[in-house]
Amino acid sequence: MPGSSSSSAAKNSSVAMTLKVSDGDGKRLDAFLALALPELSRSRIQNLIKEGHILLNCTKVKARASVNLGDSISVHIPEDTPSEPQPQNIPLSVLYEDDDLIVINKTTGMVVHPAAGNEDGTLVNALLHHCSGKLAQEGGDNRPGIVHRLDKDTSGCLVAAKTNSALKDLIQQFSERKTAKLYLCVAQSEPKVTHQTVFNNIARHPVHRQRMDVCNPGAGKPAITDLHRLHTANDGTSLILCALHTGRTHQIRVHNRFLGHPLLGDPIYSKPGRQPFRASRLMLHAWRLGVTHPKTGKWIQKEAPIPEEFRPWCDKVTEHLDRIRLSKDSKEFNALW
Which of the residues 30, 71, 100, 151 is marked catalytic? Predict the structure, then answer.
């Protein structure tokens, strides 16, 4: 995988960086960058290469050019012209919906809101179509209705607000840690401790700007994750239930890597090609989400069906998962461990 030797970005400006290839194997340039820069779609990368914004060893090449050890890749992402996101008829898996909010099961590979490299085809575009434009407008540019985010390659539960009052209330719930967020993930090796809590600070990596990393207490933001090992397969890969108390960027991925067992299929925090199991996706799923309804005050708990890719591990612990489903509050949940 590459290391970014330099990068620069200003708010609402273009972005420039140089990637040094430290693990070259003749992979196509566009495929290599799709792993190194997951925030950009493959088609966006191909267009940048075609337009000369991406150079290999200071030379304009085609997307199919081979990348090798020691190569230098210069990437320039031009400043985007702000545009209002448009409704797009993209299928959604709706878990719950009323006049105030909607909970959906986001598919892996879907970006939450438009940004550089992903101007359309996002969850926001799909929600604008599904809700006929009725989404809270105070979420910021290109983010109508968005209360929280999931990484592009993470699937599962996500709540969006249809009204400004619902948006304000839900954001406050997330900020004050009054929500319930349970994730399922599969790590490349067995955790040393069956049940543990990680409490440290997370900030953007000073060199590898696409990564987040654990940092000194005086920097970054606090990040708290409870991790419970549910099952370990013969190859050591392990199903882990993560309960989030905070919602930092890449939090679960960073904490699993920090503990020495990065997630399967993670192109940023692991080397998928060297893992004991070749996953077809990032093995992280936002399984269950609980929030208080902003208007009625009732507790809403929704579950996103477990993806088929997780079945080899989840099918071994169906009774345990059922017990988790039946826990009515944090006291009953904590009693399981």
Answer: 151
